């Protein structure tokens, strides 16, 4: 964030608040490779000083001098309402290492903490850690989670919990809210600096364009459209798609009350604080399109440097219309692949929609069904028993299975080859809420073994992992009631 390191109007230089008596809760060896941290046999850093750095207790480590930690200001729309200035209320950016920004979440108060205490709790830190790495395992663009450091320091939420710091990595944590912030304050110079920085470092293809800012908007919008299509294809619900939670790089960031679908419900709400269902599963594409409209509005002054206002608005409005097209094309392609279809036919969309409606009506487990479907016998039009048994209206799903089999036969595909391809895109393992909750409860009793085990499983979600079969099963009825909220 080199452009942000000039001027008090865009950042707050602040040191992390020390975390008393820190200890390791979790560590990602995979994420550590991004910043070249040598690890010991226990898969934690060889140098114990890293524990103090990632707890926020020291600002230097060998050649790394984190002498200007910062929190940044941004603004945004929250649940569709303009919220004005927001900012990093408990996230402090230490600096850059090997092209990755190193950020501590839960490291204490900043200028933007408002009424908050600047801390994160163990519960939410473990959830963010596991889901960040799970999304990476699913090959979905995401910020990474390097570590969770715990402490016995009490933190008051609905009840007294303990503090933790989650270390996040990303090429940049710039978000749509940064554009909205500078636009709302009419700071055109800052807005231009932000856009130029993004073009130079992350969207170099826009540099030679005659319309660099318009093309930057198109690039961000296209990445976001592809991202939300990937979410829908694995049944991921973000929970709080406010504009200040949307990455300018098309990454999944700010894991709060997220959830993966268990039993499929098209209008599933993963955040029980979302009483209107604004961020329900089926509304995520629409909301992301709305967020891109907010970005277009914030970037309009950049196009007005070259064009009259009316023309600038028309150019952005036309570019914005591409979002649903890009999303739809990607969504259709992903679901064809999930069904093992290697060619495109017009009737495929009806086939997909019929299936999803039947799954919704029967509340079928999303991940389990698509994984099991790989075992369909297209020669004899025989559905796998474990997939068929998920449905209660067998006549309806049997008719679909028959039509699906005929569609597979039309491609003359080899079942074994199709099976391999389907299992390479339909995960066996996801971060189910009840699995995360079990790991959290053990961690709250100072047993972190389940966090490490879940991490290992989720790093390879497409593998069979016969020894971990229980982690692939749908939750029991009593475990379906696990709820999450914005409290963290």
TrEMBL record:
Requisite cofactors: Mg(2+); Mn(2+)
Catalysed reaction equations from the record: L-tyrosyl-[protein] + ATP = O-(5'-adenylyl)-L-tyrosyl-[protein] + diphosphate; L-seryl-[protein] + UTP = O-(5'-uridylyl)-L-seryl-[protein] + diphosphate; L-tyrosyl-[protein] + UTP = O-(5'-uridylyl)-L-tyrosyl-[protein] + diphosphate; L-histidyl-[protein] + UTP = N(tele)-(5'-uridylyl)-L-histidyl-[protein] + diphosphate
Active-site residues, Swiss-Prot/TrEMBL: 244 (proton acceptor)
EC number: 2.7.7.-, 2.7.7.108
Keywords, sorted A to Z: ATP-binding, Magnesium, Manganese, Metal-binding, Nucleotide-binding, Nucleotidyltransferase, Transferase
Binding-site residues for Mg(2+), renumbered to this chain: 245, 254
Record-listed ATP binding positions: 87, 89-90, 105, 117-118, 168, 175, 254
Transmembrane spans: none
Cited HAMAP family: SelO
Function statement: Nucleotidyltransferase involved in the post-translational modification of proteins. It can catalyze the addition of adenosine monophosphate (AMP) or uridine monophosphate (UMP) to a protein, resulting in modifications known as AMPylation and UMPylation.
Sequence similarity: Belongs to the SELO family.
Protein name according to UniProt: Protein nucleotidyltransferase YdiU
The species this protein was found in: Polynucleobacter paneuropaeus
Originating gene: ydiU
């Amino acid at each position: 964030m080199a452009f942000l390191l000039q001027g008090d109007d865009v950042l707050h230089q602040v040191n992390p608040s020390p975390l008393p008596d820190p200890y390791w809760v979790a560590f990602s060896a995979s994420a550590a490779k991004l910043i070249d941290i040598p690890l010991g046999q226990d898969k934690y850093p060889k140098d114990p000083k890293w524990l103090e750095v990632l707890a926020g207790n020291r600002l230097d480590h060998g050649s790394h001098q984190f002498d200007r930690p910062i929190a940044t200001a941004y603004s945004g729309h929250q649940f569709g309402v303009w919220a004005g200035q927001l900012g990093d209320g408990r996230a402090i950016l230490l600096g850059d290492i090997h092209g990755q920004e190193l950020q501590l979440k839960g490291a204490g108060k900043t200028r933007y903490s408002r009424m908050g205490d600047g801390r994160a709790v163990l519960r939410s830190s473990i959830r963010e850690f596991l889901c960040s790495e799970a999304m990476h395992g699913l090959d979905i663009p995401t910020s990474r989670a390097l570590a969770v450091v715990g402490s016995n320091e009490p933190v008051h939420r609905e009840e007294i919990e303990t503090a933790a710091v989650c270390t996040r990595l990303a090429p940049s944590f710039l978000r749509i809210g940064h554009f909205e912030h500078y636009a709302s304050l009419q700071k055109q110079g800052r807005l231009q600096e932000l856009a130029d920085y993004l073009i130079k470092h992350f969207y170099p293809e826009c540099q030679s364009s005659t319309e660099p800012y318009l093309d930057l908007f198109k690039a961000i919008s296209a990445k976001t459209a592809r991202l939300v299509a990937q979410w829908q294809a694995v049944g991921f619900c973000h929970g709080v798609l406010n504009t200040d939670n949307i990455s300018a790089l098309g990454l999944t960031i700010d894991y709060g009350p997220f959830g993966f679908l268990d039993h499929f419900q098209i209008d599933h709400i993963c955040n029980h604080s979302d009483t209107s269902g604004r961020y329900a599963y089926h509304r995520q594409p629409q909301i992301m399109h709305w967020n891109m409209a907010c970005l277009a509005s914030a970037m309009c002054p950049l196009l007005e440097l070259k064009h009259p206002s009316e023309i600038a608005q028309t150019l952005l409005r036309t570019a914005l219309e591409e979002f649903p097209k890009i999303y739809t094309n990607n969504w259709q392609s992903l679901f064809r692949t999930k069904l093992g279809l290697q060619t495109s036919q017009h009737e495929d969309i009806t086939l997909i929609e019929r299936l999803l409606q039947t799954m919704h009506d029967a509340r079928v487990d999303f991940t389990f069904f698509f994984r099991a479907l790989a075992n369909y016998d297209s020669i004899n039009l025989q559905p796998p028993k474990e997939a068929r048994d998920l449905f209660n209206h067998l006549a309806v799903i049997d008719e679909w299975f028959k039509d699906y089999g005929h569609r597979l036969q039309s491609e003359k595909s080899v079942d074994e080859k199709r099976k391999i391809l389907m299992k390479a895109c339909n995960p066996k393992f996801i971060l189910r809420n009840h699995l995360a909750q079990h790991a959290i409860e053990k961690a709250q009793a100072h047993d972190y073994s389940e966090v490490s085990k879940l991490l290992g499983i989720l790093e390879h979600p497409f593998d069979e992992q016969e020894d971990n079969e229980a982690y692939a099963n749908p939750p029991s009825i009593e475990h379906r009631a696990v709820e999450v909220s914005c409290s963290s």
